[in-house]
What we know:
Chain B is an all-alpha fold. Chain B has helices spanning 6-29, 36-39, 58-112.
Amino acid sequence: MPELLLLILISLLKGGLVLGLVVLPGAVVSVYYERKVSAWIQHRIGPNRTGPFGILQPFADVAKLLLKEDIIPTDANKGFHFFAPLIAVTTAVAAFAVTPFGNYIMVGTTRIDLAVAPNINVALLYVFGVGSVAVYGITFAGWSSSNKFSLLGGLRSASQMISYELCMGLSVIGVIMMAGSLNLNDIVKNQADLKWNLFFQPLGFIVFFVAGFAETNRAPFDLPEAEPELVGGYHTEYSGMKFGMFFLAEYGHMVASAAMTTTLFLGGWQLPIPASVLAPIGLVEGSIVLGLLQFGTFFAKIAVMCFVFIWVRWSLPRFRYDQLMNLGWRVMMPLALVNIILTTIVMAFLR
Amino acid sequence: MISLYLPIVGTIIVGVLFGVVMMKLHEVLGPRRANNEKLSTYESGMEPISSVKDRHSVKFYLVAMLFILFDIEIVFMYPWAVQFKHLGAQGVIAMILFMVMLFVGFIYIVRKGALEWD
Amino acid sequence: MSLNSLLFFLFAVGAIATGIVMITRKNAVTSAVFLIAHFFCLSALYLSLQAQLLALLQILVYAGAIMVLVVFVIMLLNLGAEEKASETLNIRGLLGITVAGVLGVQLLAVFMARPSGHNELPPIATSNGTVEALGRALFTDYIFPFEAISLLLLAAIIGAVLLAKRHLEQVEAPKNISTDDISVQHQLSDKPVH
């Protein structure tokens, strides 16, 4: 019994750590990052009143959202109106449970893996599973509001997300073939010495990355919340922190998407320096310094990917819905299939 | 073995708790000055006309159905991709046959115009 | 009691509880949510049997794909509140009770057949459920069923498109409508929105 309690306590602690150290800072930083980068792109200054360089802006946002009135429309289904943002934020947090933030460090003789749940053999499938459950948050939000705009936004979003989920699922097959494993840490280890999957799977990378935009409902695929057509889309009837939960979830999903792209295609926590160079200067596997460096490298790569996400959002116009679905089904799906066939042929001949 | 997966459950519980705490905090901190107008369904300043219980395009169902079918096809590719290096020629031929079937289905969908959004 | 069996009982109780809640709710969407929760419990049960791939497929395919369609259909059909609850004992109910009874007897028979407690996993099971083992089995011993599945899925795709396409064509080409076809007229009168 005490053994089980300890295990549960450690699990909750790990969950709390990933929320406190990765998801919330990630969301907070990317909110500020988005505002500053968009301002830079549009030749504005951006937030500069709250704290030095406006770095307290995200906290001001949170305070504002908390102090707003909570409006639940009379026609809404109250239970689901509360439940929907909960699904959205939970899936955003849960997506990080299997991400490898680094390899491992040795403290004395105990090995500490730099991940919440390391050594999960089916980690990649878990990530897709979380992604497919995230669809419900938006669908229920749209449905429970009893509002035409919300319902249409929710429906569109769900159709869009499931369509692009297929492309995402197909685009990683090549990566799995190369690594021979669904374990994310194995996939990262397979990309050692700058042998990033990006160079071997450029087509898969493009499909995965584009699908990532659609999965996170970000521009140019933010059809669910296209203001000219659907007002606020699925969150039209949400206010205050309940809206804030969707807001947080969007940024959480963006960081998660960047983290997955990094893990699968950009070498994850691998430093851009071969291990043969690092080993002579004392940076061997398991040393704390190397662990921290890997952790830093991983987040630097995520920051770059997030920058691309923001850059694209503020540069490209929104797609029309038929264009979006056509792109997903008629362009991305065949491209992903071609990628699998090409990988099969090349790998069969190289053998 | 199942204990490996407990941290995932822990993360999910923490996520749920965080969401509940934040939203309840908001309910406590936020002001309450509701009136009928404010609580009515938003429709760009108009009185809401007709209900949401309208009929929707069959395409949404079609997309969902096709998604299930393709999802199942993709799911079969994962074990194959993991074992690819050990399966040899037999595995390649098996998957090519499978992919041909998938492609036939795909071309059928496109030719039938099932994915035309107008 | 080992950790594994403790977790098994936890999730088994969870699965039964969510299942019962699912069939007793009047609101169909609530039922759907509890069905999804039930799938999660089932997934955990698969995990306790060391079947990792199956556990994740349960979430990916059932909770993530099939339930999306179910939720779509329930939400957009919008059954009125009065239509849902007014089902009294009729032929369908009787049939349901009969089938449940037969299933109950079967389950009882299965339990009685094995009175001695074989609640330890046979050792071979630990590596049987991994993706690697499943892939090996699927592409060596079960290659014919695998290819047959692709044919089955192709048939299902064609069926889905035919089913949906019939409606689309009727809406687009009004000349095919005969006046006595009420369902088609109804479709035309309130053209679907998308």
